[in-house]
């Protein structure tokens, strides 16, 4: 084995976590209410990307502290509110949503994140669409 290959391998193993590609990413949320005339397309940011994990196939041989299943999640976020157009007076026309300010690799917190890969509902509009750039 060449010294360059060995040094590259050691560097990759040592600094792999630092090179995780977890960052705020642009995303469009489609929001609609049954009572309202329009669907609102909201451009926001979410946390997305790759986080270094350790394979848990050898969990019987390793300590729990050696295993990690990190996800790209919010480090800092704020909430913004949008007005859904075309709603009748008896309907609350507001929708609040998170905006990722910064992200980190860590455990998924179900208090504010969807930790499941599959989604039941797809992200699309069934009514005429209005764009909201926040």
UniProtKB/TrEMBL annotation:
GO biological process assignments: G protein-coupled receptor signaling pathway
Signal peptide: 1-18
Matches recorded under SUPFAM superfamilies: Cystine-knot cytokines
Residue span, Glycoprotein hormone subunit beta domain: 21-125
One Pfam family it belongs to: Cys_knot
Taxonomic superkingdom: Eukaryota
InterPro entries: Cystine-knot_cytokine (IPR029034), Glyco_hormone_CN (IPR006208), Gonadotropin_bsu (IPR001545), Gonadotropin_bsu_CS (IPR018245)
Major subcellular location class: secreted
Subcellular location field: Secreted
CC terms in the record's Gene Ontology section: cytoplasm; extracellular space
Coiled coil: none
Complex and partners: Heterodimer of a common alpha chain and a unique beta chain which confers biological specificity to thyrotropin, lutropin, follitropin and gonadotropin.
Protein family (similarity comment): Belongs to the glycoprotein hormones subunit beta family.
Name the record gives this protein: Thyrotropin subunit beta
Organism: Dasyornis broadbenti
Gene that produces this protein: Tshb
